[in-house]
Amino acid sequence: MTPAEWGIVALALAGAFFGGVAAVGLVRLPDVYTRSHAASKSDTLGAILTVAAAALALQSGLSTAKSVFLLLFMFITNPTAAHAVARAAQDQGIEPWTADEGDD
Amino acid sequence: MSDTDAHRILVPVGDSDTLRDTVSYAVERASAAAPNRPVEFHFVVAAETQSVDPDAPEELGSAREQLERVALWVEEDADSADGATDAADGPPDRFTVVTDVVGTDRYLFSPGDYADALLEYAAETGIDRIVVDPEYNPAGTASMLRSMSVELARGDVPVETAPDDRPAQGAVLARAASLSKYLSVFVVSYLFYMSLSAWKPLDFLTGFVTASIVSVVLAPVVANRSAPLGLTLRRLARLAVYAPYLVKEIAVANLQVAYVVLHPDMPIDPEVVQFRAAVWGDGAVTTLANSITLTPGTLTVNVSERSFDIHSLTADSREDLFDGGLERAVRFVFYGRASARIPTPRERDDAGEGRDG
After folding, report:
1. Does ipTM come in above 0.95?
2. What is the C-alpha separation between B289 and B230, in angstroms, rounded?
């Protein structure tokens, strides 16, 4: 394998790892706020690493440029969506889970 | 209605072509609605900047000048109106003019925020009626949001919009201006679409359709004002320095969160904390809020004024937040190196622990 291919594999694996972390976090974490941490950020990083792998693998100017735009937009929209979810939860009066009250 | 004898009218004041007419209308209405009672006019500017903002002194100065002009107009109108009906009545004494600037203690973003600030003022001063300028639109061009008069109507005070007496020509000009905005949004999005497309005949068609939809939906929310070009370029250059730092922060913090999530005991200690950020201006506050959300372990739940409600996953992530690295970086991007040296939230005592509720 060439170094570029190693890089692609590494990025894709890292992406899959953080995607997995997001999924595990979504299941394990106790409430909507903590879950949106996992759903928004580990997920963003996972998706970004995967798209970066794709950008490297495509190796054509236009497709790579499109992938980079995709990265940028994910960077902007994912935290915005997570914020919207958390803010909606707060507006609904959902109390955040804290370590000393739960037994989970 | 108020239990004291003065009839109180609130007129929100902003930059608008129809302000002069609105003042006349308010005076007319006052004469009609309360012919024999004293009338108090409250002319209030809802400030767009916070008082700590670098532009604030200038902006507040021009707001005060505007309010002084408005007060003079009331005198003019009062003289002519009452002079015509009954000259004997020494009229201007009946009218009192109160001017004020509200909202300097916080950031007002949406029409709702402006309405809240004005309604608070109305509640404090016992306003009987609100007269809104038809062109009053302090929150900028976001016409997708509800209009001021609708927002103000949430209060208990009757709200009316002053009539728009401008000749048709004015309306045509206004439409032409917004048309050019639709066009520019359309052109930009069409070019963007084509630059990413394969230039096949079908792409021109789909690009046209896409750009049309984008311009119709988004032109109303495209900002009118923008920072000077030089400043924008400098900010972009500093943003290029900021981006790698942010990526590094995201990577490190993501590993921490992965550790916490995958650890068998899941050592999380979530808490909502509040802190006052030393950044100001829509762009900087938005950038900081999004950066905080992107940095794992911290999630921006709510931003009002400069105060951020942050949900934090672990004690470590709270420490990082109060160390103010991101905040300093955002200041660096928006205001340059000198402003990056403001003390950290902890040192400033702006870091608030768990907020109830």
Report:
1. no
2. 25
